[in-house]
Amino acid sequence: MSTENLNKDQALDKMKSMVKDIKTCMLVTDFGNKPLSAVPMTTKEVDKEGNIWFFSRLDSDHNGDIAKDNDVQLLFSDTSDMEFISIYGKATIETNKNVLEEFYGKMDDAWFNGVDDPNLTAIKVVPKEAYFWDNKQNKFVTFLKIGAAAVTGDKKGDIGEKGKLNL
Q1: Spatial contact of 103 and 53, defined as CB atoms under 8 Å apart
Q2: Running DSSP on this structure, what letter comes out for residue 157?
Q3: Taking every annotated instance into account, which residue ranges of this chain make up the domain General stress protein FMN-binding split barrel (predicted)?
Q4: What is the pLDDT averaged over residues 70-82?
């Protein structure tokens, strides 16, 4: 696996692409307590600045955690395409009606009573740093390459890339 650290626009483009493809992540909050608090979240949007948006309930534990300490970790994982990205950032809870209306869709009715639900909030995560692992091929091809490397002893097989995204 080769290492490719990306900067600025390239880093932002890589992060946006991976987050848009994977969509669902584990949101980790309250780093000071063990075990860590992690909940699944579905991405609503990655805006042009690279901020990542989610919907959440006002009375949720993770909103309470963010109100006390806004450090968060987002862990995106797509095992079918062997793509992974870990994003550390700062989160804020947004209640601005324009923001809620911009991202609200019919599917959100499964969790909320419409865009006017008093418990509806948006979480905005501003990424500070990220690390990615992208195997370029699907799982089957990756396993074939790993198997070939095991048989031949060639540890240099190109099964993908990893690196830091300097945002």
Answers
A1: yes
A2: -
A3: 11-155
A4: 94
Question: Widest CA span of the chain, in angstroms?
Answer: 61
Count of other CB atoms within 10 angstroms of residue 142 = 17
Task: Please tell me the least confidently modeled range out of 2-16, 57-71, 134-148.
Answer: 134-148
Spell out the domain ranges in the chain. Answer: 2-166
Structure tokens at 77: 């994982």
The answer to whether 163 and 134 are in contact (CB under 8 A) is no
β pairing state of 71-78 and 24-29: antiparallel
pLDDT digits (tens, 9 = 90+) for 24-56: 999 999 999 999 999 999 999 999 999 999 999
Tokens (6 digits) for 118: 């008093």
Q: Note the helical H segments in 24-126.
A: 61-68, 97-103
Return the structure tokens found at 2: 């080769």
The confidence band for 82, taking pLDDT boundaries of 50, 70 and 90, is confident
Cα 165 from Cα 15, distance rounded (Å): 8
The alpha carbon of residue 53 and the mean position of all alpha carbons in its chain are separated, in whole angstroms, by 10
Q: How many CA atoms lie within 13 A of 94 on its CB side?
A: 20
Percentage, residues of the chain above pLDDT 70 = 85
Residues 89, 54: Cα–Cα separation, whole Å: 14
- What's this model's pTM, rounded to 2 decimal places? 0.87
